[in-house]
Each structure stands twice: as structure tokens, then as C-alpha cells.
Amino acid sequence: MNLQLTGLHLEITPAMRDYVTSKLARISSHFDHVIDVKVTMSVEKLAQKVEATLHVPGNDLHAACEDNNMYSAIDMLTDKLDRQVVKHKEKNADHHKTNGAVKHQVIQ
User: Fold this and answer.
1) d(Cα 63, Cα 55) in Å, to the nearest integer?
2) CB-CB contact of 16 with 48 (8 Å)
3) What is the C-alpha separation between 89 and 108, in angstroms, rounded?
4) What domains lie within the chain, and their CATH numbers?
């Protein structure tokens, strides 16, 4: 997973970078096929904004959060992305059951 962090009106500290990578590790544990992640952090007066775009095979997932604290905004962002990744994974799962289907059962 390639991670690209960008700061608008903000310098990204190593602590922020480590925090984002540790939170995004949870997403990669649910879904291994994340190609790259682009995270943009910005500050506008008192609002701390975090936006992220995940590039997965067949789709791009985007989420944005805003809070007074940057770390809580990152937490909310990873929760949103986690839900989106799980939903994307369920959509792409093969729902056809070969052994349990009625048409594949042996008639006696």
C-alpha cells in the first residue's frame, strides 16, 4: 500500500505520519488489495480537515472528516473508510454457493 500524505497550511509531523499509518493498517487488515492511499490534511481557522482517497481494484473510495482536533478527525476518517472497504469487499465477494445450492444437490 502506497501512502501519500499532503498538508495544506500545515506541516505534517512524524507523529502525525505514524498515527495515520497505524490507523490505515486496520483498513489493510480487512482488505489486502488496497493499491494506494492519498491523505490530505488541512487547517482552516479552527477546523481541522482530513480527506482520503483509497484506490482499490475496480473503485476509488473517498471520505472526508472535520473536527476541532486533528487526531479525532483521523479516527473518524478511518472509521468511515473501514465501513466503505468492508462494503466494497462484500459487494465483490462471490455469492454463488456451489455445494449448498439447491440445483447442485443430489436427487435420490
Assistant:
1) 12
2) no
3) 38
4) 2-91 (3.30.160.100)
d(CA 104, CA 108): 13
What are the pLDDT digits (tens) for 7-54? 999 999 999 999 999 998 888 777 777 788 899 999 998 899 999 999
Q: Is 9 helix (H, G, I), strand (E, B) or coil?
A: coil
Tell me the pairing of strands 36-44 and 2-8: parallel
How is residue 47 written as a grid cell?
477546523
SS3 75: helix
Give the model confidence (pLDDT) of 45-79 as tens digits. Answer: 889 999 999 988 888 999 999 999 999 999 999 99
- The sign of the torsion formed by the CA atoms of 18, 23, 25, 27 equals negative
Task: Give which of 93, 41, 99, 32 is closest to 71, Cα–Cα.
Answer: 41
Cell numbers that stand for 70 in this block: 486533528
